[in-house]
Design a protein that fits this description.
This protein has about 675 residues and is mostly helical. Helices cover about 65% and strands about 0% of the residues. It is flat and about 95 Å long.
Length: about 675
């Protein structure tokens, strides 16, 4: 079972299964095997975590046969097997998830309910939505089957079920509601109320109506159970030898209670609708909102009922509701992935429900219309609104950024829609800069990866706007974190132009602020150097330029991070760095020949370091211009003094390049030097 060759492991599992099958006595209908199998349990536990999922599925089938052979004594071995078995429900393959549920059902039929409930939270807490959906549905069916008078401790199930009630996937929420109703029917209402007392007010406000609905469903389920139990006594008791008929009757008794609860569900929904105070005011929006989340939206809609009655002129495009912190806490750990079409569609549905509670009906209808022209119109309305309402923007910034990200990457995205979204983002960043707002990590993780992916667009206008946005983003988010986003985007993207643009932006950040200010050189430089081996010439050249900028910023210490380059790539980079070194050496030697009386650009504390950040250089020159005493003293020696206009032109450049500051000084100084400068040179001794 532990062999390195998967074929040998597969043969071992098949051999064990064959032994179990052949050990069954002829005509035996009950347990026929002892559960004390020595090291077999440890071997099967390891195979459930096998990297070959086919072997894991084969192991699940073997465990079903072993449970049927061992019988009730299988309960004592559940501690070793169930954790790894239930963890497999998070797999993407439906066939494997079905095998897990089949194996779990067989084991649960021989185990005590207490032991099953103790291990179920493992399956209810998996990250995969499909696995969690299957787990809550199985748990609801299992709780509906067990004895309601046994006084079970249901409390281990409550935390994961409560978390599922707030899940972003509607199917998971619906299964969690069924599971909650079954928990209450098993006598867990007191435990549910204790769990609700530990919640924060915002969560309690959204979950309380769902719990009330589950109480009504549990009452209906209890009535259905009693009716089903009465009907189950009427059929004749089959003979003990007729195994088929007895199993049929068991299935009938188990499944009958489920159908009345399903049939009564519309009446429960109608009760919830009648209790809603704002159903008539928001009929158009409520049709799009599932029942599970409608209760959370209704209180916010009722608060603004007076605004809706006063007239459309008082309705704002966005409203402040103070719900951003709650949304960030609930969805902050959810990765915002738009690569999968199904996941993107689920995220769009969730965003639709969230925006319905904070936006006007008109704006909401436009933003989530099927017609892209309506979407563009809604986006332009938002642009004009946020300029005058910064508070409403910052309170709903996460939703606005999510909407922008989805519209830029959706199937219906076209150039007109993308340009409108970029205009909205530019207006958003301008408002944030004007109000000294800083993006949170959640807000940054929503918009930056999408922008860095779309910067490789074939449209020149789109690329230019995204470049401007990325440079403006340094005013609302730390530059070092933006550099990390660029590094990650260059790694994961499949678009070579996007990768090249990310490398170009990294070069700009290194030139403006210095290598040590934007990243950890020991981690970032080797990753960037790997792109020198790319076949795409644009990516290769931009990677070389980024390494050159790093060398100009940090000097020779960059070389110790380039030890893993291939020889041919290292030769290309060395040739480029050699040119840079020679140019820097020639400039340094020209500084020495000017004389010791003038301050030097290197090795002197009074001079301006060319590798310093631009704000530091600007401070030095402006201080010299402001002080009349210091302004009379030359920072640069008299023969090569540069005009103040040239200095201002250099400092006011939008993205000044530190690598060419020195050369620009000398070019302008040579043009401004008087002809007698040569005569002022000291005579050469004979």
């Amino acid at each position: 079972l532990a062999d390195a060759n998967w074929k040998d492991r597969q043969a071992a599992i098949a051999a064990i299964e064959d032994i179990v099958i052949k050990a069954k006595p002829l005509g035996c209908t009950g347990p026929y095997m002892d559960g004390s199998c020595g090291e077999l349990w440890a071997g099967l536990k390891a195979r459930l975590k096998d990297s070959n999922k086919n072997l894991a599925a084969q192991t699940l089938g073997l465990l079903v046969r072993i449970a049927e052979a061992v019988g009730a004594s299988i309960d004592r071995y559940s501690k070793a097997i169930l954790p790894n078995m239930l963890a497999l429900i998070s797999d993407n393959k439906k066939s494997l998830r079905d095998s897990v549920l089949a194996c779990l059902s067989t084991w649960a039929s021989f185990m005590t309910p207490e032991n099953v409930i103790k291990h179920l939270p493992i399956a209810l807490s998996v990250d995969a939505p499909a696995g969690r959906e299957d787990a809550v549905k199985w748990a609801a069916d299992y709780l509906a089957r067990i004895d309601k008078t046994s006084g079970l401790d249901i409390s281990p199930l409550l935390p994961p079920v409560m978390d599922c009630l707030e899940h972003r996937v509607a199917e998971v929420r619906a299964g969690a509601e069924r599971c909650l109703a079954a928990i209450i029917a098993c006598g867990g209402l007191d435990a549910v109320n204790r769990c609700l007392r530990d919640l924060k007010p915002a969560q309690l406000k959204s979950l309380r109506p769902i719990v009330d609905k589950a109480e009504k469903a549990a009452a209906a389920l209890s009535v259905a159970n009693s009716a089903g139990a009465g009907n189950a006594e009427k059929p004749e008791t089959p003979s003990s030898g007729d195994h088929t008929s007895s199993s049929t009757i068991v299935k009938t008794v188990v499944r009958e209670p489920v159908h009345p609860a399903v049939e009564r569900e519309p009446s429960l929904q109608s009760v919830v609708r009648k209790e809603s105070t704002s159903a008539s005011a928001s009929a158009g929006v409520s049709k799009k909102i599932p029942l599970t989340t409608r209760s959370a939206v209704q209180p916010e809609q009722s608060e603004h009922a007076d605004d809706a009655e006063s007239g459309p002129a008082d309705v704002k495009a966005l409203r402040c509701n103070g719900g951003k912190d709650a949304r960030e806490k609930q969805h902050g750990k959810v990765k915002w992935v738009l690569d999968d079409a199904r996941e993107a569609e689920m995220l769009l549905d969730t965003l639709d429900r969230q925006m319905a509670s904070v936006s006007s009906e008109e704006i909401h209808a436009k933003l989530f219309s099927k017609d892209f022209k309506k979407q563009v119109e809604g986006i332009r309305d938002l642009v004009s609104f946020i300029a005058q309402n910064p508070k409403e923007l910052t309170d709903n910034l996460d939703l606005v950024l999510k909407m922008c990200a989805i519209r830029m990457t959706g199937k219906a995205a076209n150039t007109t829609l993308v340009l409108a979204v970029l205009d909205l983002l530019r207006a958003v960043f301008e408002v944030l800069v004007g109000n000294d707002y800083r993006l949170s990590d959640l807000e940054a993780s929503v918009c930056f990866p999408v922008l860095m992916e779309e910067v490789g667009s074939n449209n020149d206008g789109v690329r230019k706007l995204i470049r401007d946005l990325l440079r403006k983003a340094t005013q609302v988010y730390p530059t070092s974190k933006i550099f990390s986003f660029l590094l990650d985007a260059a790694h994961v993207t499949r678009n070579q132009r996007s990768r090249a643009e990310c490398l170009s932006e990294m070069t700009t950040l290194v030139e403006r602020l210095g290598l040590d200010q934007v990243c950890v050189p020991s981690k970032a430089v080797p990753i960037i150097a790997n792109y020198i081996a790319e076949r795409d010439s644009l990516v290769r050249n931009n990677a070389i330029e980024c390494i050159v900028a790093a060398y100009q910023s940090s000097g020779d210490k960059v070389a110790k991070f380039l030890t893993k380059l291939e020889p041919k790539d290292k030769d290309i980079l060395d040739a480029k760095l050699k040119k840079v070194k020679s140019s820097l050496t020639s400039l340094s030697s020209s500084d020495v020949t000017r004389g010791a009386s003038s301050p030097k650009l290197h090795g002197n504390k009074t001079a301006v370091d060319v590798r310093a950040s631009m704000p530091e250089a600007a401070a030095v020159f402006r201080a010299a211009a402001a002080d009349p005493v210091r302004s009379s003293m030359s920072i640069i020696d008299t023969p090569s003094r540069v005009s103040r206009a040239a200095i201002n032109e250099l400092l006011d450049a939008p993205t000044p390049s530190i690598s060419n500051i020195k050369s620009r000084f000398h070019v302008q100084a040579a043009a401004a030097a008087p002809p007698a400068a040569a005569a002022a040179a000291p005579p050469v001794p004979e």
